[in-house]
């Protein structure tokens, strides 16, 4: 393998090196420690139907994720994952799945490593790797550019299928110098994006997204690839906690993509990711204009009607209903590898916005009324309000004796009145200037400027009246 890759560097592979180095650096910086979240109750979805919507490694990724986080589904999910990875000859994932199954069902036949299969598969994978590298070396000796590109692609596909993602990324990156068409560049970059998503290297996803945009030049390219780029960029923005940016990527994704990208995300995922991030980051007017009235996103929302109901409830100020809908699907979202780390933040953001929006029309409201509206005990509601007030997110006071929440609206009203008066004065000033200019023209007092100069009154124009004269006539010498 070393000989083949060194030849790639000698024969023009230098430009792909920075991309791979950036990928390796991002991989090395990924945190190995994370808190394991356990979902003790069954989700609302049917496991077989749920994973049947995905293809490629994403199906295995989701099965393993569910198996490791949801004990009631662990055995079913892990046994299904073992069956798939054995067919794909991914020894590393096979060991991982068996190790997890040993925790939940140690006596299950699949919970014992098939050492014979491991040995046989490892040998066959190495033989195929050696053969593909020998073919690539031959292509390079013959200087056949298209054959070299295909050789790198075959190696990348082989490494990807068998679980060697780092080598797969390196092989795909080295295709760049041998691509002779825009389509080849697009396909190569999409392959790199896929691996980065599988490895949760979202900085590298964003880098490759920026690259692929420079190659989408025709309408056909945009039609085919823009939805995939939007989904990849949306997932990267979601991972970074930039929910508004993520929402706009998802809600502008064309439904024409169908199931063409289900090795990353399904149309149902786009609806869920777009709806949740929009709820967390957009106000009611933005939700109406950009989400609920979006002809593009409506198709996705039809696949997940509960997301549409939550969005509609929030926009209609039925905040308690919105929050209860989201809470009913919490377990489902905690079993999504892209959403799990963000669910608490997203739900908290939606809840905070709901409380703030609920309070806006009132100058005073009882704690009991708010606790009823949000379906929580009064004591919990009071604690939430205290937290929001102390955090500067809610401008209100709590009267604990009378159990009232009153608005700090005096200063706000003063600011509104002051701004309104300033705006009215500006309109009046502009109207006076406009009327004076019209009267000057009607009276024939305007002097046409010499050719090449600006017209109109003022120091830069040729009119007889400049800015000082206008102000003097309108407001007197004191102006």
From TrEMBL:
<keyword id="KW-0736">Signalosome</keyword>
<keyword id="KW-0539">Nucleus</keyword>
<dbReference type="Pfam" id="PF10602">
    <property type="entry name" value="RPN7"/>
</dbReference>
<dbReference type="InterPro" id="IPR019585">
    <property type="entry name" value="Rpn7/CSN1"/>
</dbReference>
<dbReference type="GO" id="GO:0008180">
    <property type="term" value="C:COP9 signalosome"/>
</dbReference>
<dbReference type="InterPro" id="IPR045135">
    <property type="entry name" value="Rpn7_N"/>
</dbReference>
<keyword id="KW-0963">Cytoplasm</keyword>
<dbReference type="InterPro" id="IPR036390">
    <property type="entry name" value="WH_DNA-bd_sf"/>
</dbReference>
<keyword id="KW-0175">Coiled coil</keyword>
<protein>
    <recommendedName>
        <fullName>PCI domain-containing protein</fullName>
    </recommendedName>
</protein>
<dbReference type="InterPro" id="IPR000717">
    <property type="entry name" value="PCI_dom"/>
</dbReference>
<feature type="region of interest" description="Disordered">
    <location>
        <begin position="1"/>
        <end position="24"/>
    </location>
</feature>
<dbReference type="Pfam" id="PF01399">
    <property type="entry name" value="PCI"/>
</dbReference>
<feature type="domain" description="PCI">
    <location>
        <begin position="242"/>
        <end position="412"/>
    </location>
</feature>
<comment type="similarity">
    <text>Belongs to the CSN1 family.</text>
</comment>
<feature type="coiled-coil region">
    <location>
        <begin position="118"/>
        <end position="149"/>
    </location>
</feature>
<dbReference type="GO" id="GO:0005737">
    <property type="term" value="C:cytoplasm"/>
</dbReference>
């Amino acid at each position: 393998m070393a000989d083949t890759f060194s030849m790639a560097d000698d024969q023009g592979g230098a430009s792909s090196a920075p991309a791979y180095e950036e990928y390796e650096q991002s991989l090395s910086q990924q945190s190995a420690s994370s808190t394991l979240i356990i979902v003790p109750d069954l989700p609302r979805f049917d496991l077989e139907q749920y994973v049947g919507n995905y293809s490629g490694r994403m199906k295995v990724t989701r099965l393993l994720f569910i198996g490791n986080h949801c004990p009631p589904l662990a055995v079913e999910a892990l046994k299904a994952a073992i069956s798939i990875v054995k067919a794909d000859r991914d020894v590393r994932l096979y060991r991982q799945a068996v190790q997890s199954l040993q925790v939940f069902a140690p006596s299950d036949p699949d919970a014992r490593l098939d050492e014979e299969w491991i040995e046989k598969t490892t040998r066959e994978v190495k033989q195929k790797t050696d053969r593909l590298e020998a073919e690539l070396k031959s292509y390079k000796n013959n200087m056949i550019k298209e054959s070299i590109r295909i050789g790198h692609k075959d190696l990348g596909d082989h490494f990807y299928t068998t679980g060697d993602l780092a080598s797969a990324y390196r092989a795909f990156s080295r295709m760049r110098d041998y691509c002779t068409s825009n389509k080849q560049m697009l396909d190569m970059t999409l392959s790199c994006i896929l691996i980065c998503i599988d490895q949760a290297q979202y900085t590298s996803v964003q880098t490759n997204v920026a690259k692929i945009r420079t190659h989408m030049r025709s309408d056909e390219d945009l039609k085919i690839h823009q939805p995939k780029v939007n989904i990849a960029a949306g997932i990267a923005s979601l991972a970074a906690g930039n929910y508004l940016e993520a929402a706009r990527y998802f809600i502008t994704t064309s439904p024409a993509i169908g199931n063409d990208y289900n090795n990353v995300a399904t149309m149902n995922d786009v609806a869920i990711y777009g709806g949740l991030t929009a709820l967390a980051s957009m106000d009611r007017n933005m939700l109406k204009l950009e989400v609920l009235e979006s002809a593009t996103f409506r198709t996705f929302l039809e696949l997940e009607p509960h997301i549409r109901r939550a969005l509609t409830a929030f926009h209609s100020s039925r905040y308690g209903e919105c929050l209860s809908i989201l809470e009913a699907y919490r377990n489902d979202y905690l079993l999504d590898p892209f959403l799990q780390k963000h669910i608490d933040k997203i739900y908290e953001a939606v809840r905070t916005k709901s409380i703030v929006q609920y309070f806006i029309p009132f100058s005073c409201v009882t704690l009991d009324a708010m606790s009823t509206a949000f379906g929580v005990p009064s004591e919990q509601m009071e604690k939430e309000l205290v937290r929001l007030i102390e955090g500067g997110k809610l401008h209100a006071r709590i009267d604990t004796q009378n159990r009232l929440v009153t608005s700090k609206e005096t200063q706000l009203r003063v600011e509104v009145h002051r701004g309104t008066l300033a705006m009215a004065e500006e309109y009046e000033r502009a109207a006076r200037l406009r009327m004076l200019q019209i009267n000057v023209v009607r009276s024939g007092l305007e002097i046409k400027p010499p050719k090449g100069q600006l017209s109109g009154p003022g120091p830069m124009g040729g009119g007889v009246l400049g800015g000082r004269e206008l102000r003097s006539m309108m407001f007197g010498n004191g102006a």
